[in-house]
């Protein structure tokens, strides 16, 4: 079994809401998906990329040059945004790009860069293209005319220990405004929200509460002499 290492840029895509589309348009989805697959393969192969595998409603593709991966993603988005055949289901595809050193074995790729590219894609919305800081660094000043990058800051992604610095690809023919990324910051978690500044002092607070409830001497200090409260009420 032949193995080798390679610095590779990965493009992951998938169709936003594909399960719902299959439920809503079961007869229209097969031709729509076939059109999607043809446009995806054309975008990847025209830019010198390799389709590692089709993932059912997306693609896992590999490129030697990150600029080719970026332009393939933009081409795919433009192709899908063109006027679709009458009656066709509109497909919104999200894209994620990342670059890194990976192992190549049996015509497949293995390593953290593959997983990170997939997670970057998962943070995007349909019609959005995201890429990592390493991709932006390698492209440098080679961005084609009309394409710019919007800095979205550091984002925490599912199953990844370190946050990723994410950029959005901007192009005049593509939508540029989207909701917040699908990151861990945007998803409610099961951690209890601390509504007090006494963080980490829960045991001490509980002990104080029990003392206040059980110590008669403490309670007695807060009981007014008989009749004193009545006089005060009447005087007011």
Helix content: 25-40%
Distance between the termini: 93 Å
Uncertain residue ranges: 187-199, 218-236
CATH topology of the largest domain: Alpha-Beta Plaits
What's the Cα radius of gyration? 28 Å
Shape: globular
**DSSP helical segment count:** 8
What is the percentage of strand-forming residues? 25-35%
Mean pLDDT: 83
CATH architecture of the largest domain: 2-Layer Sandwich
The major sheet is characterized as: 8 strands, mixed
Assign the CATH class of the largest domain: Alpha Beta
Oligomeric assembly: single chain
Question: What is the assigned CATH homologous superfamily of the largest domain?
Answer: Nucleotide cyclase, GGDEF domain
* Domains, number: 2
SSE series: EHHEEHEEHEHEEHHH
Got a strand count? 8
SS-based structural class? alpha+beta
Describe this structure in words.
The chain is of the alpha+beta class and 236 residues long. It folds into two domains: 3-186, Alpha-Beta Plaits; 202-235, no CATH class. It is 36% helix and 25% strand. The protein has helices at residues 18-24, 29-46, 66-81, 112-122, 133-139, 202-214, 216-220, 228-235; strands at 3-15, 50-54, 58-63, 93-105, 108-110, 129-132, 148-155, 164-170. Strands 1, 2, 3, 4, 5, 6, 7 and 8 form an eight-stranded mixed beta sheet that branches. A hairpin with a 3-residue loop joins strand 2 and strand 3 (58-63). Helix 2 (29-46) packs antiparallel against helix 3 (66-81). The longest helix has 18 residues, at 29-46. It is globular, with a radius of gyration of 28 Å. The termini are far apart.
